[in-house]
Amino acid sequence: MFIPIAGKVIGSLIAHKRLPKSAKAVELGAQTYSVDQNVIAGIARELDNAGEHGLAEGLKSKLGTAKAARRPREEGVPHVREFFKALGFESYTAIDIGDYDGNLVMDLNTIIADSYNFKETYDLVTNIGVSEHLIGQAVFFDNAHRVTKVGGYMLHILPSLGYLNHGFFNY
Fold first, then answer.
1. Integer angstrom CA distances of residue 40 from 70, 84, 150
2. Are 61 and 128 within 8 A, CB to CB?
3. What sign results for the dihedral spanned by CA atoms 8, 14, 15, 17?
4. Closest Cα to residue 171, out of 155, 153, 159?
5. What is the model's pLDDT at position 101?
6. What are the strands of the beta sheet with 148-157, ordered from one edge?
7. How confident is the model at residue 168 (pLDDT cuts 50, 70, 90)?
């Protein structure tokens, strides 16, 4: 799930101008939006304080009253792409083994450049609770590096303590 800390970190990257104005993002694993209204208000304040008034207002108007999911694939919540769009990202892509609302269907246990001739690169690559579900750990992280532009960012938010029966790996 696209959890609040992911939203906060990405909002901070934008507020502190760590990403270009026309940034491209890819999620390795299609996520369900679960950023609540209080977190959106906090991200908007940070953007406003950084002089990004238009982005702050856009974020509040598009997602300020949006419902946050409590479980994966919950109906009635915004798509994660709306969050990225509200922050001014030029493009948003998700890659997953399943077909979820327009994502690219690829097996991240394989080198996607070889298996799918996928050679796109992105300013921001996210892995929010995905890699622990894959057997091919080295392959997954190789893919993450391959799709990250030089100078780009990777955001890995993964379970650690307390998730003993969640996925194949704990970090």
1. 16, 12, 29
2. no
3. positive
4. 159
5. 86
6. 104-105, 91-96, 24-28, 122-128, 148-157
7. confident
- pTM value is 0.94
8 Å CB contact between 117 and 128 = no
| pLDDT one-digit tens code per residue, 82-115 | 999 999 999 999 999 999 888 999 999 999 999 9
Helix axes 53-63, 37-49, angle to 10 degrees: 170
Question: Alpha-carbon distance 82 to 103, whole Å?
Answer: 14
Question: Which tens digit of pLDDT belongs to each residue from 12-44?
Answer: 999 999 999 899 999 999 999 999 999 999 999
Name every residue whose Cβ is closer than 8 Å to that of residue 128 and which is 6 or more positions away in sequence: 1, 2, 3, 6, 27, 29, 31, 155, 157
In angstroms, how far is the first alpha carbon of the chain from the final one?
18
Place of tokens 């509200």: 86
Three-state secondary structure along 43-77? HHHHHHHCCCHHHHHHHHHHHCCCCCCCCCCCCCC
Tokens of 58: 């856009």
